[in-house]
Model the fold of this input.
Amino acid sequence: METGTSPSARLMRAAVFAARVHAGHRRKGAAAEPYVNHVLEVAQILAEHGAPEDAVLAALLHDTVEDSDEDPDPITHDRLVAEFGAEVAGLVAEATDDKSLPKEARKAQQVRHARGCTPAAKMLKLADKISNLRAITASPPSGWDHARRVEYVGWAGRVAAGLKGANAGLDALFDATYRDAIAGLAKDA
Done:
């Protein structure tokens, strides 16, 4: 990582890096929006709630390792350390699921490990859940019936219970987003 780089230059470098990694990726929702919109939203949520700069950078990068595992040049933890420093790479690692585990095991692991995350990782993961709940409410993935959306919202709430306490503003935003998701599901029932 270059020393003396301005915060805005580091932020833009991370945004461009994420955009390149996610260039061919789309969200699962019916709108099929570019995936990079998700990482930008997570970073924006954190920036608007006073999260540390490294957490905002990690938000832009938080899915690069997970989502590039099948790419010709997958992103590794070591590469993120070299490009963005150990602190940012460590936050990305805290937010990265172990894709060698089955989906249900990964979900259970997120619930179990939430309380043990560093404060910055708790903020990152909470902002990620906020973005995901918004997406499921506005544009649910095709093929997700009502029961599947209810299950996801409930799981997100269980993960969030362990993430709270690092940033009161994010805690309140999650709670409001969760209530909106529940209300939307109730209308659809």
